[in-house]
Amino acid sequence: MTAQVFHVSPSYMRRQQARQFTWLLAMLGLVAFSLYYLAQSLGGPLVIAELLVPVLGVLACSAYAAKLVMQLRVGKRAYPDVSWDPAQEVLSLQQPEGLVRMAVAEILSARVQVGLGRVLALTLTTDNGEQLRLEGYEALDELVELLESRMPEGQVVRTRLRY
Predict the structure, then answer these.
(1) Superkingdom, according to UniProt (predicted)?
(2) Which residue from 49, 97, 104, 113 lies 20 to 30 Å from 143 (Cα-Cα)?
């Protein structure tokens, strides 16, 4: 049998990037507002308490904006392809750091989050305590069915998300 490859949905990537870009614009707006407020505070009598809020605002919003810029620069590389090898019963992820392989025997539990009649996310926990969350993949339902058929019944838990 041949390995089955699962890709991230292009619409999911676009939604995530649009969300990150919106938050980036909001953070830049807050930085600009905090700098304006700081400039206004420096114009009058110097009160330390009035300077604290805009300085903290600039620092916090700048740090989050930098994180968002890094996430936007990574782009598609942040979503590795997942392949399933039925012969060896191994799940493989090709990441920039290298290939990550996870055998079904190493998986302690699988949490399947279901909402609106479809699988939204899959969280796998290994015997090492590592967790892997798969979200936004095309045909994630098929991957869940493959894992459910090969794992003991008590190790797979389905949770419903309510909106």
Answers:
(1) Bacteria
(2) 97
User: How far, in Å, are 46, 67, 81, 118, 163 from residue 97 at the CA level?
Assistant: 50, 20, 13, 31, 36
Write the single-letter amino acid at 157. Answer: V
The 10s digit of each residue's pLDDT in 47-102 is 777 788 888 889 999 999 999 999 999 888 888 889 988 888 898 988 878 888 88
16 is written with which tokens? Answer: 């995530």
Q: Count other Cβ atoms within 10 Å, centred on residue 144.
A: 19
Measured in whole angstroms, the distance separating CA 57 from the mean position of its chain's CA atoms is 25
Helices (H) and strands (E) in the chain, counts: 3, 8
| Mean pLDDT (whole number) for 3-32 | 93
Instruction: Find, among 25, 49, 24, 26, the residue nearest to 38 by Cα.
Output: 49
Report the 10 Å Cβ neighbour count for 41: 19
> 7 with 58: CB under 8 angstroms?
no
Cα(24)–Cα(15) distance, rounded to whole angstroms? Answer: 14
The answer to whether the beta carbons of residues 57 and 30 sit under 8 Å apart is yes
Distance CA 142, CA 148 (A): 10
What residues contact 118, with CB distance under 8 A and at least 6 apart? 141
